[in-house]
Structure formats: C-alpha cells, structure tokens
Design brief:
Residues 109-242 form the Fungal lipase-type domain. InterPro entries: AB_hydrolase_fold (IPR029058), Fungal_lipase-type (IPR002921), Mono/diacylglycerol_lipase_N (IPR005592). By secondary structure, the chain is an alpha/beta fold. The protein has helices spanning 7-27, 42-45, 47-57, 87-90, 120-127, 143-166, 179-193, 219-224, 246-251, 256-269, 272-276, 331-351, 356-383, 415-429, and strands at residues 38-39, 81-85, 97-102, 107-112, 134-136, 139-141, 171-177, 206-211, 217-218, 229-234, 282-283, 287-292, 305-309, 430-432, 438-440. A 9-stranded mixed sheet has the order 1-13-12-10-8-7-4-3-2, with helices on both faces. Helix 1 packs across helix 10, helix 3 packs antiparallel against helix 12 and helix 5 (120-127) packs across helix 6.
Length: 442
C-alpha cells in the first residue's frame, strides 16, 4: 500500500531537499551576504559605536555611578540627559528609553533598549502582529512595533520640538537595539509623516540607526526610507535573517523540528523572486551596514570590514548555521566590533592625509553616492516586480504631500502606458511644422 501511494518516493524527495538545504546552509557564511557591497566610509559610520554606547547606557540605573560601562565609558555627560523612561512610565506600551542632547555632535538622541526577557509587555509588543495586519504609507509594517512607536512619539513629540527649537540645526536621531531597533525604525516613519508636530523639521535632519534590526517593514518601505534609516548587522546575527513569523516561533517551541523542516522546504522550493513579490513580507529596514569579522573555516577573528548597500534581492534571506548567530546579536559585541572597524577606517583615511577641504568634499560625494544607490535600488525593485514601488523623477516631484496611512500607492504603468503618457506630454509642448519636424508650440 505504501508503494502504491508513492510514499517512499515522497520521502526520498523530502530527504533530498532537506539534505540540499542543509548542505547549502553549512557552506554559507555570513560574509557571503554582502560580498558584492561597497565599503563604508569613516564619516558615515562614525555615529554607530557612539550610539551603541548610548543604547547601553539605558540599561544603567544610575549614570553617575555606572556598573556596566564598556572600556572607555559611555562617552556621555549625565547632565545632558533630558529624562529616562522606565517601564513604570511606559506602562508596557514600549521598552525603556532615554532622551539625550549631545552638544558635542549637535544631535538630539532618543535611545531605546533591547528586549527584556523578564517583561511580559515586551513579548506582547513583539507578538502583536499577523501577516498583512498593518498597512502604512503604501506598505506593510509590524503592528506591535508601530503601536509602540506611536505611543513614544505622542509622549515625546512636544519635548523633542522644544529641544529642536532651543538647538537649531541639531539633527534628530533615533537609535535602538533588537526590539528597540524595530521601535525606532517605526518611530522614524512616524516622525517623517508628522514633521509639523516637531516644528517642521526637514527630512534630511531625521536619522535612525537600528542595531541588530528586526524585520519590521515591507521591502518597498525599506528601500524608500533608506535615506534616513540605517541598519547595522554584525556578521551572523540571526534576527535580521529570521523571516519566520515570531509568533510561530514561540508557539512552536515544542515542535521546533517540524517548524525547521517546513522552513527547509520553503527555502528549497520557493524562489526568492516569488518571495519578493509578496507585499506583506517584512524585511530589515533601510540602508544596511554589515560588519564582517570572520571568514569561513578560519580560526579567530579578522580585522572587521564594514560593507554597505541598499539591497533588494539577497537581503539577508537565510539563517546562518553558526555558533555565533546569537552572540553576534548582543549590543556589547556590536559596540566593540563597530569601534574596531571605525578605528581601522579612520586609520586608513589618515594614511592618505586628506586635507579638510577634501574631506568635506568626500562627505558630499558619499551623500550623492548614497542617493544614486537608493535610486538604483528603487529601479531594481521595479524590475523585480516588488509591489508599491515608484521611482521618483530625476527632475523632482510636483507632489510633496505625504500619503496618509490609509492611502494606497499609485499603480505602476506598463511599458505601453508609460509610452502613451510620454507621447501625450510631448504633444502638449511640441507640434509638427509643414516639413514634418517637431517645433515648440506657439
């Protein structure tokens, strides 16, 4: 009966698929995910270790007498801390965070800590989401993280506006780790769409640095907001690569092998191009910075290298089978390796002995290169058929009003539709003369 039902054949195919997946995962190293990316500059990566230390300071009960400070301390002035909100203040709506005015770097920083494994409220925020539950600005986001970000924004927007008015020209930076990274990524979206509540701050003055980010927004949002959201990932970190719904992980602790086998079949049988076309699928947000410090089959660590890009396909899609997958998620390791990487970047740039004027020109060049890279990512997303992605015109846009949460993104035109629109636009400006040549209309 088993042979008649072809069960042995099905079992063989299933085992071969699992073996192929396991073989690919065993040979796949975290450094392969970013091997084609460019190397980051010291100027753009400089805030990362500093913000990591600020996030670490949220864990302290008394900043005047710190107990868990990294080597060299937190590098902050306790008198510049505006206030610190604990779980007693947030009532479980958001993790612990602090508000800090960094006068040395002309920055107003809101730093959010990572998940507290002893707090049920953090689990509630993390698990408050279903596939396609929450739509925002033409894409999909994690419902629980967005609700936490909205609560923080409503609680702090007046304070942030006053601080920005008292310190004109300061940037507004949101920084967080793990669960906090998802909150600050959503907070950046909310801030951009409510700039008038922050005193009309320009978009270019809003920044977000998500350390060890959770997958919290759809691909179109991740690419469109890559100019303000930066995600930092250390080598083999598991969380940015975990595309399994988190609620399924917690519900399947007693049947984890079944979940992994199902994940095996999905990775083996479903092409990435099909996954990219699912508009509800969530990804790590914004521009990605990947710190690579280990090579496959090597003992020990290598000098860390920071690679950066705005990828569309190949955006940390597979979990790395590594003994460092969980330790690379720790904020203390991210701070340590980020500082080492920054020191090497500064050392390499100082070797070139670039004058100050040239350094300012390099910063402008980096900004321009980032803009061009984001435009290329948007075009790549359109070519791959990613839903709700529009490539802005190189000549600017006539409609700067942000869409509301309920608005749907404008549908993309087909090739023939774009051609007809182009012909109609040309006919409004030019006309044919008696010889058949195109001349401007009178």
């Amino acid at each position: 009966m088993s042979i008649a039902c072809c069960l042995p054949v099905v079992e063989c195919v299933y085992c071969l698929a699992c073996a192929r997946w396991a073989w690919q995962r065993c040979l796949h190293s975290g450094g392969y995910d970013s091997e084609t990316w460019g190397v980051a500059s010291a100027a753009e990566f400089e805030p990362v270790p500093r913000l990591c230390r600020l996030i670490l300071s949220v864990y302290e009960d008394d900043l005047e007498n710190p107990q868990w400070a990294p080597p060299g301390g937190y590098g902050m002035e306790p008198r510049w801390v505006v206030h610190r909100r604990t779980y007693e203040h947030t009532h479980g709506h958001a993790p612990t965070y602090l508000l800090y005015v960094d006068h040395r770097h002309s920055d107003v920083v809101l730093a959010v800590r990572g998940m507290n494994m002893a707090k049920e409220s953090d689990y509630a925020v993390l698990l408050d989401n279903k596939l396609g539950q929450r739509r925002f600005d033409g894409g999909y986001v994690h419902n629980g993280l967005l609700k936490a970000a909205e609560w923080v924004f409503d609680a702090e927007c007046d304070v942030l506006r006053d601080l920005l008015e008292k310190n004109p020209g300061y940037t507004l930076t949101f920084a967080g780790h793990s669960l906090g990274s998802g909150v600050v990524a959503m907070l950046a979206l909310v801030a951009v769409h409510n700039k008038e509540r922050l005193g009309g701050i320009e978009r270019k003055r809003i920044r977000c640095f998500a350390m060890a980010p959770a997958r919290c927004m759809s691909l179109n949002l991740a690419v469109r907001y890559a100019d303000i959201i930066n995600a930092v990932i250390l080598q083999d970190d598991f969380l940015p690569r975990t595309d399994i719904p988190l609620e399924d992980i917690f519900k399947s602790l007693f049947c984890l092998p079944c979940l992994l086998c199902g994940r095996c079949l999905i990775d083996t049988c479903i092409p990435e191009s099909v996954m990219l076309r699912d508009p509800r699928r969530l990804y790590a947000p914004g521009r990605l910075y990947h710190i690579v410090e280990r090579k496959p089959f090597s003992c020990g660590r290598i000098p860390p290298v920071v690679r950066t890009a705005v990828p569309v396909d190949g955006r940390f899609e597979h979990i790395i089978l590594s003994c460092n997958a969980t330790s690379d998620h720790a904020i203390i390791w991210i701070e340590r390796e980020a500082q080492r990487a920054l020191d090497l970047l500064v050392e390499n740039e100082e070797t070139m002995e670039a004058p100050e004027v040239q350094r300012m020109g390099d910063e402008i060049t980096v900004t321009r290169a980032h803009d061009e890279e984001q435009q290329a990512a948007l075009r790549r997303a359109v070519a791959l058929g990613v839903a709700d992605v529009n490539v802005p015109s190189t000549y600017g846009t006539f409609d700067e009003n942000p869409t509301s949460e309920a608005d749907e993104a404008a549908p993309l035109l087909s090739d023939s539709g774009r051609r007809r629109a182009w012909d109609e636009w040309i006919s409004r400006i030019f006309e044919k003369d008696e010889s058949g040549q195109m001349v401007p209309r009178r």
